[in-house]
Every structure is written in structure tokens, then in C-alpha cells.
Fold this sequence. Notes:
17 strands; flat; 3-stranded antiparallel beta sheet; 6% helix; 2 helices
Amino acid sequence: MKSMKSQPFLSILSVASLLALSGCTSMKVKMGWKVYLAKTPITSIAVNLPQGPAIGPGEKSPLVVVVTQPDGKVLQTEGKGEGKVMWKDLKLTASVVAVNGKGVVTLPKDPRVSDGKVGHITVTVPSHPDLSASLDIPLRYDLKYVANFSGRRGSDGMNGSDGTDGTSGSMGSTDPTNPSPGGNGTNGSDGGNGGDGGDGGDAPPVQVRVTLKAEKHPLLQVSVSATGQQKFYLVDTEGGSLTVNADGGAGGQGGRGGRGGRGGPGGMGTPSGNSGRDGSDGRSGSDGRPGKGGSIAVTYDPQVKMYLALIHLSNSGGPRPVFKEEAVAPLW
Length: 332
């Protein structure tokens, strides 16, 4: 017969075993935390985007799939839905947008992929081929975009090493009948100097081209080019904006000087020894110099003039941005 004292230990052991097995799908199903759709009667299926109906370039948004059983009981997917339905029991297909195996929808950053289109998701249940659900996902462009071509930040200097403390002097004697002097403590060593921070990098010249795409909400087509890279943006004139950064990189921080070592105390005796000298603290390194801002040239179509306030430019340490008005053809 098991003693009463062993029962709490066995209970704790059982809980620990369950926790260790919690990553196992079959155990989750046995515990009622998950379900196998292949073994679950289903009458209908639906899908939604709980964080909002629309998605913008570069954004992510989780899906939630809802299945209804014959008795009216509703089950939701794991993840954002915090439910029992596992994503691996569903098949997801997408157009324009992309969706991963955990039900997270993404839209590519390049608006040329999505301009004028609507995202679409279809969900099917391989174990219930007669059931499916689909969702159209509107695309939005009223985002606060940032095109960053700023120079790199300088590297921080290394901290100086601390000096070592001096050793204590040897003990003498304070016996009046047999006095002897204490030994002198040794000097502490000097701390090492901190390294200088690296200089920030210069930003490259940046070219910006802007034209108007007439829509119910007019959209700006924007191209930003620098250092062989070209990025495209589609900006809704009602709520959207684009910030172009071509700032010089910040200088790196100078390293801290090392602390000087403490002098060793003199040994006791008659007379007592002298304490060693403290080492000098090391010099802190100098901060690096900031880099130079890059030049920014903006060429815009005459129709864009009334929307130029949506284009924000920053190139601290560089020349004043230049604006040029001329006809700009559609960028894609």
C-alpha cells in the first residue's frame, strides 16, 4: 500500500509528465486542447481577417477559420483564434497575397505586384472535400512609408581594460622589544585608454520620381533610387505619406577609459609600510564624426504639386533637397 506522503509526489510527477508531453499533438488531442478535423463532423466553414478587412504592402495579418459542427458548436483555429483546430488540417491557397502554414497573410512590399488587384484566400478541408470557404482581401495604401538610405552608424570604440590593484606590503612587527618595519604596498597599474568611435557613413545621392494615378482616392506612384537600388511605393493621398531618409550615419561612441588599479596597502609594522600609488584612469575614446547627408533630387509631375506635402525628406548634414517639376510618365 502506498503511503499518503507519496501521493503529492506522484501528482507532481504526473503533471510534469503531461507538461513534458504537451508538445505532442496526440497528447493535446487526448487532453481536449486540439481536435483532428478528420474525426470531427463539420457542417460549414468560414474564414475572416480579425485585425481588419484590408492589408497594405509589407503588412502581416492573421487569419481565423471557424468550423461549425452539426450540433451548432463552433471551433476556431489555433493562433489568433486561440482555438482547437490545427492549421495542418487545413489547406490554404492564395492569390496576390501570400499565406503561411500558420494562417498569417502577407502582402509583398512592392506595390507593382498588387496595384489594381484584390487579394484572395481559399480554405479547404482535405478530410471534408465538400467544404470550403473563401475571402476577398481589399488592399490599402494609406500607410506611413519610409525609404531609408541613411549612412551606416559608426562602430563604438572598445572600453579600456581596468588596471590591476597593487599587492599589500609584507607584515612587520609591532613588538616593542623586537620591532621591524612593514613592507611597502606595490603601485596599482594604469587603466587602458578607451578606443575611439568610428566615423558614421555618408548617405548616397537619392533620386525621387513622383507621378499621379487618378483614382477615386488619387494615388501617388513613387520611385526612390540610390546606390543601385530602386524601391517603389503607392501612396494613398488620403492618409498616406512617404518619408525619404538620406541622413549621415551617427558617429560611434568612444570607449570608456579603464579604471586605474588601487595601490596596495602598506604592511603593519614599526614603522608601517607605505601604501602603493593608485594607477591613473585611462582616457576615454573620442566619439566618431557623423557622416554627411546625401543629396535628394525630387522630380514630380505637375499633377502632383498639390500633394507634395505628403513627401517628407530628411538629409541632415547634406545639401538642400532639389525639386524639379516636369511630366513624369506612369512608373509601372
